[in-house]
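Usage

Read records sequentially. Each one opens with the input sequence:
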Amino acid sequence: MDEQAAAAKKTILRTIPYGLYVLGVTHDGEDSAACINWVTQTAFEPPLIVMGVKKDSGAYALLKQSGKFALSFLESGQKDLAFAFFKPTTVEGNTMNGAEFVRGEQSGAAVIAAAPAFIEGQYVDEVDIGDHSCIVGKVTNAVLKRDYSILTLKECGVNYGG
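and closes with the structure output:
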């Protein structure tokens, strides 16, 4: 790809709207959480999503071991909460990276208490190509606490794509 096409690719791919989510996983008493933005629904029956998860992250390693996850949906205005999960996970009591969390009923994984909605799921498969793996997950539980507008990368002034 020449320089002009590479620049065009970057600009075009960054126009895809990206929401922000916190992926929580747990396995054998170890917790990890990461802010992710590449998420989409891929099937109604069974209800499937795909998440792009960085392969060198603690969340990826634990997800592969546990086979379960929780995905907290962040709402507009929760930029600081999202940014707290751009760094390694620290757990102190019932807080993770300074944010209060509860455990998902089915996954046991961290759910951000301030999130307006979350889903839980099971690892189904993945496409392991590139620096992020495309994790296919089956949605097994969903909780909607209130209506919301998803927090986006654009709102945060961040580009993570292209």
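Summary fields computed downstream for this record:
- The radius of gyration is 16 Å.
- Helices lie at 3-13, 58-66, 79-84, 153-156.
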